[in-house]
Design a protein that fits this description.
By secondary structure, the chain is α+β, with helices and mostly antiparallel strands. The chain is about 55% helix and about 20% strand. Helix 1 runs antiparallel to helix 2, helix 1 packs parallel to helix 3 and helix 4 packs antiparallel against helix 5. The longest helix is centred in the first third of the chain and has 28 residues. The protein is elongated and about 70 Å long. The protein starts with a helix and ends in a 5-residue tail after the last helix.
Length: about 190
């Protein structure tokens, strides 16, 4: 029975370690080196503890399955958490031919900074709209696009750095605890 508990702990620890790794990589991609380094410390610490348990008990194949399952589920959890954190900026490119001016005006009325470019598509004139927004604003932006121009084609790209009018907008420099406060902070109404 002890090996079942150990297997479960290996699984949970591996989920934590891989989830931290996923978040660490996302932080590195956004230039947040200090936060990524701190997370990396805990990621490797957990990994070493788990590996030491497996090496001590090589005669329990159940631990191998727990380790591999924790890795697989940890990827899922890590991506979910990274998505919930929604750090950084994205470039959304919207391509449309039907009522592009209407969509352009609606997006601007809702506070989005949008640049438009007239272009030529396969079937005639189109308009390409560009907007750099915070990742947290993606649902609002896409809701407006889908509601007002459902046939529009769009792409979303992560961007690392944004410059505005010759002034560099620094990456988010929150301390380590601000990054994770969102998960544990209970909002009171």
């Amino acid at each position: 029975m002890d090996y079942l508990l150990n297997g479960f702990l290996i699984f949970i620890a591996r989920v934590c370690d891989v989830s931290l790794g996923t978040i660490r990589i996302a932080l590195l991609a956004r230039g947040l080196k200090l936060q990524a380094s701190i997370i990396g410390f805990f990621e490797v610490l957990i990994w070493i503890i788990v590996i030491s348990q497996i090496i001590k008990h090589l005669d329990h194949p159940f631990y191998y399955v727990a380790f591999a399952s924790g890795f697989a589920f940890g990827n899922y959890v890590g991506l979910y958490l990274e998505n919930k954190l929604a750090m950084g900026n994205v470039l959304i490119r919207v391509i449309t031919r039907k009522e592009p001016e209407k969509l352009l005006n609606i997006l601007r009325e809702n506070g989005f900074i949008v640049t438009s470019v007239n272009a030529e598509g396969k079937e005639g004139p189109i308009m390409v709209l560009f907007s750099v927004i915070k990742r947290k604003q993606i649902p609002k932006f896409l809701t407006l696009v889908q509601k007002n121009c459902p046939q529009a084609f769009y792409t979303i790209e992560d961007i690392r750095e944004v410059r505005k009018y010759n002034e560099e907008i620094q990456p988010h420099k929150a301390n380590f605890f601000d990054t994770f406060k969102k998960f544990f902070w209970i909002k009171r109404k």
